[in-house]
Amino acid sequence: MRTWRILLKNLGLAFTDGLEVLRDISLEILPDNIYALVGPNGSGKTTFMKLLAGILKPTRGSIEMLDEDEIPLNMRREVLLSFQNPDISFSHLTLRRDLMEVFNLRGERLEDIWARLADLGIPPEYVDRELDTLSYGWRKILSLSEYLLLPSKLLCLDEPTANLDLLWSMRIWGFLFRERAKRVFGLIFSTHRPEELLIADRILYIDRGRIKEVSHRDLLAINNDYIKAMLTPQMANILANWDTSLAEELRYFISEATEGDKA
User: Engineered SS bond to 11: which of 61, 64, 94, 139, CB 3.0-4.6 Å?
Assistant: First the structure.
């Protein structure tokens, strides 16, 4: 059963200097899809996700999140954005201090939070480690754990595997896929890595502020230098033969291969 949807109608965003960053966007975003957001640097990917999270407001058109009864939901509460730099998420030296502040403000029992953190597979000793003593990969996972502890309906990830090698990238995705198997939440991620397109159900292609939802095969028909540089002939062949079963198999493999991996 579909529990919510996001509708964007003729959406646009212009800054005070008149620069139009996003224009003429009409989309429907659904909870059962994983979306890959791709496009050149400066095309508006992060700005688009800020709009979804309610951090920015459109200057034209409309955006709303509706529940199954078509009742509007508060997008600032239901949509979370995880920035590319994990350190932006932390205001304290340790994850425990960060979580104590967040969840004390929400009036939740901290004992429940520690139990849920363990369910996410976070080693107990990492909760009190100073963040600057951890690897970049572990800081990414701890940052994501904060977002996953909050009861959001949609999680937007700004290049979640940027600056990570293939192994750490798999750990990040495995971490997310295992949690998504426990509870349904929507997922949108931006990327420049062609192999990550294979784990997405749908692709949102953005260029010069315009976004359109395309299939994996449709992406091959986009004739510009960015797509040409992104897709090798081998990757183009895989995308031409992509189907949903491939995405499901890859997500299952990544989830199983990285479970219990303490790095």
Answer: 61
pTM: 0.89
The rounded distance, in Å, linking the Cα atoms of 49 and 36 is: 12
In sequence order, what are the beta bridge partners of 80? 155
205-217 in b/e burial notation, b at 16+ Cβ within 10 A? bbbebebeebebe
pLDDT in tens, 1-43: 568 999 999 999 998 887 899 999 999 999 999 999 999 998 9
Dihedrals phi, psi of 75, to nearest 5 degrees = -70, -30
53 in a structural domain: yes
For the stretch 200-222, pLDDT in tens is 999 999 998 999 999 999 999 99
Give, as one character, the DSSP assignment of residue 195.
Answer: G
Domain containing residue 104: 4-258
Q: Give the chain's domain count.
A: 1
